Amino acid sequence: xxxxxxxxxxxxxxxxxxxxxxxxxxxxxxxxxxxxxxxxxxxxxxxxxxxxxxxxxxxxxxxxxxxxxxxxxxxxxxxxxxxxxxxxxxxxxxxxxxxxxxxxxxxxxxxxxxxxxxxxxxxxxxxxxxxxxxxxxxxxxxxxxxxxxxxxxxxxxxxxxxxxxxxxxxxxxxxxxxxxxxxxxxxxxxxxxxxxxxxxxxxxxxxxxxxxxxxxxxxxxxxxxxxxxxxxxxxxxxxxxxxxxxxxxxxxxxxxxxxxxxxxxxxxxxxxxxxxxxxxxxxxxxxxxxxxxxx
Amino acid sequence: xxxxxxxxxxxxxxxxxxxxxxxxxxxxxxxxxxxxxxxxxxxxxxxxxxxxxxxxxxxxxxxxxxxxxxxxxxxxxxxxxxxxxxxxxxxxxxxxxxxxxxxxxxxxxxxxxxxxxxxxxxxxxxxxxxxxxxxxxxxxxxxxxxxxxxxxxxxxxxxxxxxxxxxxxxxxxxxxxxxxxxxxxxxxxxxxxxxxxxxxxxxxxxxxxxxxxxxxxxxx
Lengths: 295, 220
Description:
The complex is a heterodimer of chains A (295) and B (220). With 295 residues, chain A is of the alpha/beta class.
């Protein structure tokens, strides 16, 4: 049974920061802007459930496909380079002429939300982070720099030459996604597949996401630099996490608390009946939090 | 015949003119990949100039030239300047260099993580505030490169990364180097293999050729 979700009010492309970004929009231009930032490997249509409800609160909701995702421009040769995402967001805010904006993001998009708020306080009024306080410290710790670099360059070689995996049907892709995100309802997996795939050269289907997003190039990205970025945030932040166990909510309580403590003005709420995809599983609760926090 | 790979600096207005003199002197196969946004090469789609991208360009140039691992000539001596030196370190970390010559590549002043983040924020603001850096470039080198790069010189990360570089390293430091005076030899000690420092008054291609030649392999 497909989800019965309305189409976005408007769809556009904008050219910013030397790339082309797909924007999905709900609500009236001129109302205060809320940017919604999706997670890694997802795309803007992830917000199809929440966005119209936020627009109904009196906001102009602007939802980009991040570069390397959905219909937006591709990543560079070596993979994702964090500052490029932030320049893209600054360009989007400039394009929509609505600074400062409210921003909310999920998972990787939650990380972008905090990094953007930290870097551009003049562009952001308030920020909501949905289960996006970064990877666990052990995942950020590089044990063997030589092996990591060799793997990165070998992966870059491979991704440049191999054909992207093609699936015979979109149904198979949705089932695979469901097996990975067990708490995400199947109809949501189908929705993400419907808007996140395109026909492949062999008559099947391939994901729109740029395979280079999996490349982790060497750089000084550590727990300490993440905390330093959080310490530089000068705007109020609301963090929402699900209360239910989920394999994609992988921070321990101690790790999460240490990161929350690094943010100066932060409130944290847990949401019952939700795992990692809080905005999907408990759209009502997230809308309620946003209504209160953004108004 | 030892191979040579040259990685020019970001924003170099004439990388071919500068480095072809080294390539011409080299007694063996040599590659000088001109990076996107330099010389006649179009800018990268998306406007990203990370050194990691430069390392991928270098790896692809080697592969295109048929420089596979395991043949008799092995991996090249990699000469890199500035940003190109950082890319050269990444190539070496990945096991695709036989030796490194780093010209003004030992890095800027050490920063803590808070300064690292502040510098990245300053760079973002500089780019956002410069219409020429945002717009598609109409000149080469790309005006975006005038803003340089956010610092990566956090000491602990650099030390851990450089310990993974076990091939011989020669560092050539000129007065233009961003490395604080007197810090060069301490930084060399971070590398996992033999390392030598050459402090010179000016960049002389003949001297670079001699140093690179002294490191000639073949390297396994």
